[in-house]
Write a structure and sequence with these properties.
Elements: H1 3-21, E1 30-39, E2 42-49, E3 51-58, E4 61-66, E5 76-81, E6 91-94, E7 106-113, E8 124-129
Antiparallel strand pairs: 1-2, 1-8, 3-4, 4-7, 5-8, 6-7
Length: about 130
């Protein structure tokens, strides 16, 4: 058996093993994600998984509604925001208000400047794990 044949056989066995361990229910896989932004006075959703809508509730504040609800509100989310200008003014994705909600059906996220004032971004990326 040649080296190439052995490597091929090993890769096949590794693939079969991984296939039995990682499936759609694996906790390391994102349950929902979305790439969206506020452009030209409207929400633009570029791509998403398990997200039915993104609503702008105020400047820099958004509600992301899941297509299929999470089992409960005990999920983890992370988000990144792109700066809206090239002037060095950064945008960050945060939760900073006790009125922001996180339910099984949706999560509220906010985008702010480094001075902590709410502001929109042309691109926000949100990922939800459960």
């Amino acid at each position: 058996m040649s080296l190439a044949s052995r490597i091929s056989a090993l890769a096949s066995r590794v693939g079969l093993e991984v296939k039995t361990k990682i499936d759609a229910a694996h906790p390391g896989l994102a349950r929902a994600w979305v790439c969206f932004g506020y452009v030209g006075s409207q929400i633009v959703v570029r791509s998403s998984h398990n997200v039915s809508s993104v609503t702008r509730t105020a400047a820099g504040r958004y509600r992301v509604t899941f297509a299929t609800a999470m089992p409960d509100s005990n999920y983890c989310w992370t988000a990144l925001a792109r700066s809206s200008t090239n002037s060095g003014t950064q945008r960050i994705a945060i939760v900073r208000s006790s009125t922001d909600q996180k339910t099984a059906q949706f999560v509220d996220i906010s985008c702010a400047t480094t001075a902590a004032s709410f502001d929109d971004s042309s691109e926000i990326n949100l990922t939800v794990y459960r």
